[in-house]
């Protein structure tokens, strides 16, 4: 997977993709934490919403994922 690492004023950061779906994201997250000692991960991507007041192109900041009960 393609990634880039570089310095900022406060820390070195890396930006990378994780492929498609939760299984791929989970593999990359586990390896970043266990193999490289990563302390913080910020995911930027897509999500679904079940609220009528969330419109197309709204920015949604998710703190905790919540599964929808069946």
Automatic annotation (TrEMBL):
GO terms for biological process: purine nucleoside catabolic process. It comes from the Bacteria. Pfam families: PNP_UDP_1 (PF01048). GO terms for molecular function: purine-nucleoside phosphorylase activity. The keyword Glycosyltransferase applies. This is Purine nucleoside phosphorylase deoD-type. The lineage of its organism: Bacteria, Pseudomonadati, Pseudomonadota, Gammaproteobacteria, Enterobacterales. GO terms for cellular component: cytosol. Residues 5-61 form the Nucleoside phosphorylase domain. Belongs to the PNP/UDP phosphorylase family. The keyword Coiled coil does not apply. Its EC number is 2.4.2.1. Keywords: Glycosyltransferase, Transferase. Gene3D superfamilies: Nucleoside phosphorylase domain. InterPro entries: Nucleoside_phosphorylase_CS (IPR018016), Nucleoside_phosphorylase_d (IPR000845), Nucleoside_phosphorylase_sf (IPR035994). SUPFAM superfamilies: Purine and uridine phosphorylases.
């Amino acid at each position: 997977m393609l990634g880039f690492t570089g310095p900022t004023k406060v820390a070195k950061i890396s930006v990378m993709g994780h492929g498609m779906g939760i299984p791929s994201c989970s593999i990359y997250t586990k390896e970043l934490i266990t193999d490289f000692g990563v302390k913080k991960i910020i995911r930027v991507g897509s999500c679904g919403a079940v609220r009528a007041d969330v419109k197309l192109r709204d920015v949604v900041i998710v703190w905790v994922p919540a599964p929808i009960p069946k």
